[in-house]
Amino acid sequence: MKQQQRWLLALLSILIFVVSPCIAMAANSSGSVEIGGAVTDIDDNPAGVNEYINTSKNSGKTDIDPALDLDLDFVEGSIAADTEVKLRGSDNYDLSLDADINRIFHLDLDYQAFQHWKDHDNLEHIGATMKPDVEGDQPRIFSDLTIPDSDVFSGLNTAGIANRTGAREHYYQELDNDYIVTRREWENDADLTLPQLPNITFHAGMRIEEREGQEQAIANSKCSYCHVSAQGKDIDERTEDFTAGVTGQFGIVTVEYEYLNRKFDDNSEDITYQYQGVPTHSPNGGGDAFFPVDMREMLNYYGGSESVAQTPDSEKETHSLQARVDVNSGTNIKASYVNSENTSTKDANSSFSLSSDELKTEFESFGSKVATRFGNLRLSLRANTYEIEVDDNTISWTPQGLDDDGTIDAPITNQTDLTPESEWASAEGREVAEFGFDAVYRLMRYTTLRFGYNFEEVEREDDHLGETETNTFTAAVNSRFGKGMRGRLSYEFQDIDDPFVAHHAKGIAQDMADAVEVADGVFLISQTDAIALNDADPDVTDYGADGGPDPILYWDEYGPYGLRTMNATNQPDAVHELKGQFSWSINPQMAATFFMRYRMEENDEVGYDQDTFVPGANLWFAPTNNLNLTMSYTFNKQETENLMCVGWYHG
């Protein structure tokens, strides 16, 4: 199938290049041709500044890319055609053909390729504080660059390198990778309106997207960002869309239906990460091993290779129905219904298994909108609701805990109070209801006032993720004053109740009465107190032998993990945004625009604050009819403070 589509793409390219000279030689044709070149020379990694620039790069050398813009139009009787060619290099081009035959058949073909520079993280920003580092001593990172010089840590990096020298070689080799993905897309849309059915138009379309190249894959193990590694991953992805539908106009009623079938295949390289159990460790220099070698990482992973950075294959079917009733020139009613079902594959690994190897998600939504006019007031009311329903699935795994001798054992052999199965609740499962209104009032001839309100309620299937309610208020004034001067000022306020948060994700015993502050902001709790708390809490399962304590706070006298009691999120619960714009047409040859945006987000519960300030100006000048000059300046300043990280790690 893939090879056949390549032939179709090649045929489309030939068709466009054959049609173009035919249009150019026709009597009723017109067009334009621009020929030039583009040169880009960038030191260091170009991903940060050349991510979306249409120029190529070949083996680290500066390229001179040809630039061709061709636009030809043709009209002959009831036949019209337009072809465009935009070329910026071997992997950056856009070829299109738009044709209409007697207003019965309309064809729109487009084939484009785009080279995308992907970001490249050197991992140097990742720092972790370990138990002896109460006073600082950062960073202490286990990445390919900083892996300890010991065989027992060989599993902490992707390649399984057993010494610091080999790890550094792997690290710098990865830094030399150019992460570039080339995206190619062919889109074909056709409309058919038969003379026998002039009020009905049939639609059909096909879209094929391919992504090829290499991107960075980052994996971590054990205590999250204590152990991080990166490697290059070859990309080979393909998306196929097929659409079919019909639009009918029946007096004041317009109805449109569309069907979409989408298939995604990931034929990319299957890369793995080498997970290895925590090495044997003797606390306080004793001879008894506290952690056996086969202890798992990431809760369930045993030692060995596991696939990472994989996108599952999926298939999607969508039915959408829209209707519009134009009651009169000032009033219309819209309604819509969408039903979509998505199925994706999910593979188990050596650590867990699933009751089904397919994950099914169904999306269903209803929407409506009414717009009308009362004198100088334009009013619109809207209401929408949708539900995302995810099929139930059961995850089975082998839990770990304490053996009879007090050491951690994997797998558990003596536990009867822990069921090694869990019902999986997707974070996507939710019900959402939304309604609101917009009102625009013409205060005077050149001045309008706008007011709006929107309410949204998100009820998630997983109770741990909470229920979010958002109230949004907007106000704006738009006016033209003086000769050639126009201004707009708007304000928006959002009040968000219980935004998406991770409950009990941070805070090392800060709220516990028995905690000891061992450093500024660092609280620990003794092992004895932890055992007493666990035994007194009926909600805490005793995983230890013979009803012993849950081993969550063990390491010498103080357990650095403590009971986390504080929430973490990067979502605000209050937002203020002010925007303004002023335009001045100084004369027919000159115009200036000044704009400003200020946004303040805050969430006092978790210590989150973000301020964004973006002013700027645009200046347009046309000294002659054939010459336009545009100058623009934008300043962007953003300050963020968020106490969302756990500042204490322990291996």
Give a summary of the structure in a few sentences.
By secondary structure, the chain is mostly beta strands. Helices cover 7% and strands 54% of the residues.
**How would you characterize the largest beta sheet?**
22 strands, antiparallel
Uncertain runs are 1-5, 128-143, 145-162, 277-301, 401-418, 536-562
What is the alpha-carbon Rg in Å?
Answer: 31 Å
The class by helix and strand makeup works out as: mainly beta
Q: Strand tally, please?
A: 34
Give the fraction of residues assigned to helices.
under 10%
Binned strand content: over 45%
Number of helices: 3
Query: Could you tell me how far the N terminus lies from the C terminus, measured between alpha carbons in angstroms?
Result: 49 Å
The rough form would be described as globular
Q: How confident overall, as mean pLDDT? A: 76
Written overview of the protein:
This protein is mainly beta and 651 residues long. Helix content is 7%, strand content 54%. The chain is built from 3 helices and 34 strands. The strands form 6 sheets. It has a 22-stranded antiparallel sheet that branches. The two termini are 49 Å apart. Residues 1-5, 128-143, 145-162, 277-301, 401-418 and 536-562 have low confidence and may be disordered.
